[in-house]
Amino acid sequence: MPADFICDASVLGAAFFQETGTPAARRFLEAGHLLVAPELLWIEMASLAAKKVWRNEATLDVGNRAIEAVSEFVSEAEPLRPLTKRALDLAASHQVSAYDAAYLALAEARGAPVATLDAKLAMKASAAGLDRLIFTLT
Hints:
Number of strands: 5
Number of helices: 7
Helix content: 55-70%
CATH topology: Rossmann fold
Number of domains: 1
Strand content: 5-15%
Radius of gyration: 14 Å
Order of helices and strands: EHHEHHEHHEHE
């Protein structure tokens, strides 16, 4: 299935929890793009929700609803195993986390950029000449 964008956790996290990028994330999701993500996204959302609960910024119910809602926006979850070798190459070569590299590897494989609010990822991708793989929400 073709994808308009690969969606990372920064976008969905901002959409579900009040953050600096919340308005941009919500506008992006409301636009109805066809979104694909590595299966890693659901665990990243669980991690983000847990941190929000620890900090008393959200309840466990809100965190659970956020995780469940991910599937309403992301139409396809890509298994991680096929992305692993390319993710390692990208992470080692460009000093990004293996998690971020999984999104970049999927972007390469699908020919669709990673939609992100992660300025650090966008900066590292740009420095590595991977600008075509990133779409930074504003």
